Amino acid sequence: MSTLTPDTSTIQAADFKSDIHNDWCPGCGDFGVVSAVQMALAKLQVPPHRVAVISGIGCAGKTAHYMNAYSFHTLHGRVMPSVTAMKLANHDLTVIGVGGDGDAYGIGGGHFVAGGRRNLDITYVVMNNDVYALTKGQASPTIAKGQKTKSMSEASIMDAINPILLALACGYTFVARGYALDTKYLSEIIAQAIQHRGSALVDVLQTCPTYNDLHTKGFYAGQIEGQPRLYRLDQSGYDPVVHNPDDAVEIAQKKAQALLKSQEPGGRIPLGVYYKLDVPTYEDHLKAKIPGLQQKPLAELDLYHRDITANLQELM
Hints:
By secondary structure, the chain is α/β, with parallel strands linked by helices. It has one domain: 3-Layer(aba) Sandwich (Rossmann fold), CATH 3.40.50. It is built from 10 helices and 12 strands. It has an 8-stranded mixed beta sheet, with helices on both faces. The chain has a two-stranded antiparallel sheet with strand order 5-6. A two-stranded antiparallel sheet has the order 9-10. 44% of the residues are buried.
């Protein structure tokens, strides 16, 4: 069960809504994702001026425009480098990357891998709908081999990427999955991801009513042998937490457990936190090497009036 406390605060989700007109297609799952991010930040009482949202290209890339916070609309596949720069420049910010499955796992795949290895204290929310929707529905890396949406000329001939497995392999220390049309529970998952100190991935199953006629609202709401297709891990006795971070065997076992859940036979899809490991972050290691960062972030350090004599002498 979630450890988050009820929202009894003054900061509301509406405080994170910008006044820019939202032009996503009616019924798009992206609406639910943005609402969930706003609800999560309100639940955690993070002031808008302490939040930075970075998004890439594609329908999901418009997210930064719809958030009342510091935002940056970066290049295709470059969410993670921008997130990294933002967090290293000011580690006091709550930094959230938002992108689509093509942006994150396709053209940005190499950066996705590097982001997991660093274990920065960031959150990456990926809207996963199997297609490149902004460019008329070509297959993304997450669509299964042999599947064909109404916007594809023929079925996919490549195997699909498993985002949960990929994140586990890359070193993400918080790996979760949500559903865009279950906004309340998705907001809880995102809030837990933001609270986690380390690299957090939230892969969001997202409906694209315009180009994906396979994974629709009806598909996700369906049943398999009398049981709901979607179910919550926290209501099934599943424990994602590595209780001893120094135990390599337990880490491997928890990763294996998450892997098996991510490709559960029979077609049912678990939602919630798959894996959680608490270890020092990239910023922790930097602060140990650079004492000045322990008092204030890089963005607030006086880099122009410091004495670099010792550095120059070391090079001589």
